Amino acid sequence: MTEYLLLFISTIFVNNFVLVKFLGLCPFMSISTKPETALSMGLATTFVLTLSSVSSYLVNEYLLVPLGLEFLHTIAFILVIVAVVQLTTIIVHKNSPLLYQVLGIFLPLITTNCAVLGVALLNVQEKHGFIESAIYGFGAAIGFSLVLVLFAAMRERIIVADVPIAFKGAPIALITAGIMSIAFMGFSGLVKS
Amino acid sequence: MIEITAVSVLGGFALIFGLLLGYTGVRFEVEAEPIIDKIDAILPQIQCGKCGYPGCRPYAEAISIGVAEINQCPPGGRNGMLALAELLKRDPKPLNTECSKEPTETLAVIDETSCIGCTLCIKICPVDAILGAPKCMHTVITQECTACELCIASCPVDCVNMMPIPQTVNTWKWPYPSEK
């Protein structure tokens, strides 16, 4: 039980996907202008990452490894993740219009994101079991959402700040992200990974 | 041997998922609001964004819930607006000129043949961009003019006009980041 908790905490803070592993930077920069949309994006990411982590584990463990097809990891994972996410989207759209309105437009954005494939491939690389894979995917998504919402809240204030013209917009956002990344390095002593 | 397994596994995956997605697509089909589709069909679908919405479909959605007016689509023109008015049973309105206006840089130009040399525009110009003397023809110093349009009203013979500055390779510059 403690291992799972440690894995969860370390995935959120120490090995944060965005600020330490630099995965999923595209949605991090582009969907982080308002905290509300950032939260929606975070929820969609949590959904997709957990789903992709679990489904790619199952495919790898019960299909690719027994048949000796480990070299197909990347392409098989992409196929499975896209199909499973698309499938869930269709069902959610029909059965829960409200949930679809919150997540809907963000799901296709995040599905083919590198963080999503990254979590599946890292699971294989670190030889995670089923529960560990699920926790790893969920923790990565929580870490992503946390950073995204924090960053969005900061960007909202930066917009009204008196920034030199050359630094307005994307440059100051990148600088902020860099400083945030340095701050997250401070967590590296928290959990042994 | 391994190649055949690999190809058949991936092919089988793709086939199963394809069939599954096709089936669920039909089984869980969601009927969209038909009125949005009808509005969307009238709009010209060039996604120019002049209406203030990201594309034709978002504009159609905004019209359907009554947030947007029907006269915000310059490419659709008068006919498009009339078709929308007919469909939605709203009163036709003239096209919103704000939507078709593109911000261009302009400059005051004095028509020198009709200038009577009254010096009124010289007094009103806030940046001293007009050169001239009483009873002599006036002219605008192009580098100084800020296109504030104050001189237009002051001229008793209406000889000041705003002219768009044609963009050339030498005058074009990157927009400021804040204007994007």
How would you explain this protein's 3D organization?
The complex is a heterodimer of chains A (193) and B (180). Chain A has 193 residues and is mainly α. Chain A has one domain. Chain A has nine helices and no strands. In chain A, helix 3 crosses helix 4 and helix 8 packs across helix 9. The radius of gyration of chain A is 17 Å and the shape is globular. The two termini of chain A are 16 Å apart. The model of chain A has no long low-confidence stretch (mean pLDDT 86). With 180 residues, chain B is mainly alpha-helical. Chain B folds into two domains: 67 residues, Electron transport complex subunit B, putative Fe-S cluster (3-methyladenine DNA Glycosylase II, Chain A, domain 3); 59 residues, 2-Layer Sandwich (Alpha-Beta Plaits). Chain B is built from seven helices and four strands; from the N terminus they run H-H-H-H-H-E-H-E-E-H-E. In chain B, the strands form two sheets. A two-stranded antiparallel ribbon of chain B has the order 1-4. In chain B, strands 2-3 form a two-stranded antiparallel ribbon. In chain B, a hairpin with a 7-residue loop joins strand 2 and strand 3. The mean pLDDT of chain B is 83. Classes of the chains: A mainly alpha (193), B mainly alpha (180). At the A-B interface, helix 4 of A face helix 1 of B.
Oligomer: heterodimer
> What is the CATH class of the largest domain in chain B?
Mainly Alpha
Largest sheet of chain B: 2 strands, antiparallel
Radius of gyration of chain B: 29 Å
Tally of discrete structural domains of chain B: 2
The portion of residues forming beta strands of chain A comes to under 5%
Tertiary shape of chain B:
elongated
Stated plainly, the CATH topology of the largest domain in chain B is called 3-methyladenine DNA Glycosylase II, Chain A, domain 3
Distance between the terminal alpha carbons of chain B, to the nearest Å? 57 Å
**Could you state the order of secondary-structure elements of chain A as H and E?**
HHHHHHHHH
The interface involving the most residues is between:
A-B, 24 and 19 residues
How is the biggest beta sheet of chain A arranged? none
CATH architecture of the largest domain in chain B: Orthogonal Bundle
Order of helices and strands of chain B: HHHHHEHEEHE
Radius of gyration of chain A: 17 Å
Low-confidence stretches of chain A: none
Stretches with pLDDT under 50, minimum 5 residues of chain B: none
